[in-house]
Amino acid sequence: MLKLSKAKKVFNPGTINQNVALRGIDLTLDEGEFVTVIGGNGAGKSTLLNAVAGSYGLTTGQVIIDNQDLTSAADHQRANLVSRVFQDPLQGTAANMTIAENLALAIKRKAKLSLSRGVTKKRREKFKEELSILELGLEDRLDDKVGLLSGGQRQALTLVMATIEEPSVLLLDEHTAALDPKTAEKITKITKKLVKQHNLTTLMVTHDLEQALELGSRTIMMDNGQIVLDVAGEERATMTINDLLEQFNQASGHKITNDRILLAQ
Ligand SMILES: Nc1ncnc2c1ncn2[C@@H]1O[C@H](COP(=O)(O)OP(=O)(O)OP(=O)(O)O)[C@@H](O)[C@H]1O
């Protein structure tokens, strides 16, 4: 469960560069709920994820995960609860380590075991099992260096690393944006499978409106540091991209300005 309560973030307060990035966000994700987040440039999407991850503190308001108030906890203190996958497929994995060693590191973060103890026979079986979900054949390449993998394979591995220990909250930060369309589609499918398999509470920022409606069960749109639209259920299930853009225009009073969304249309 994730709950943001009256979350406000002001950058450079009291200076000429003061910028209110979040204007009192109230957002609750139930256990296992998968919410997609869209919005224009500078709407506050990254700031929202950063606030959950603890990359920086909120100016006011609260972040609650599994009924624990983590508002003042730093990112390393939230590492056991929050996993995040970034846009760059090279960011989440260590190129000069093997697939098995990378996965062992992901487990070690929680188990506090040494790396050598991390790659046990039993764990190799678990890694194989997890990797087979991807249907990329990585389960047969446990001892290959990650640097040998393609961008898409690395992002798929990053997703397994982020989900294998079943974090309380999974944050996906435009994690398919840097991939070619075909690979992005594969990673989208893998995301769906892994989130379902582990029943993860997930918040995903995307500029791909089709993906925003395809994944998860609820979509929120942000504008100027606020949630201006929150759709789920039957309404969302029958929604087209045009409907979504139209509703955004009505709710925000202007057309969406996001270079990447516009390029993708
Ligand atoms: N570290 C920072 N210092 C000062 N201002 C910041 C900082 N990070 C973000 N901002 C400002 O906060 C606002 C929200 O930014 P944020 O990056 O969250 O938007 P976004 O919705 O992710 O946009 P985009 O889609 O363009 O990446 C913007 O006005 C941005 O300039």
UniProtKB/TrEMBL annotation:
<keyword id="KW-0813">Transport</keyword>
<dbReference type="GO" id="GO:0016887">
    <property type="term" value="F:ATP hydrolysis activity"/>
</dbReference>
<dbReference type="InterPro" id="IPR017871">
    <property type="entry name" value="ABC_transporter-like_CS"/>
</dbReference>
<feature type="domain" description="ABC transporter">
    <location>
        <begin position="2"/>
        <end position="249"/>
    </location>
</feature>
<dbReference type="InterPro" id="IPR003439">
    <property type="entry name" value="ABC_transporter-like_ATP-bd"/>
</dbReference>
<dbReference type="GO" id="GO:0005524">
    <property type="term" value="F:ATP binding"/>
</dbReference>
<keyword id="KW-0067">ATP-binding</keyword>
<dbReference type="InterPro" id="IPR003593">
    <property type="entry name" value="AAA+_ATPase"/>
</dbReference>
<keyword id="KW-1003">Cell membrane</keyword>
<keyword id="KW-0547">Nucleotide-binding</keyword>
<keyword id="KW-0472">Membrane</keyword>
<dbReference type="GO" id="GO:0005886">
    <property type="term" value="C:plasma membrane"/>
</dbReference>
<dbReference type="InterPro" id="IPR050166">
    <property type="entry name" value="ABC_transporter_ATP-bind"/>
</dbReference>
<dbReference type="InterPro" id="IPR027417">
    <property type="entry name" value="P-loop_NTPase"/>
</dbReference>
<protein>
    <submittedName>
        <fullName>ABC-type uncharacterized transport system, ATPase component</fullName>
    </submittedName>
</protein>
<dbReference type="Pfam" id="PF00005">
    <property type="entry name" value="ABC_tran"/>
</dbReference>
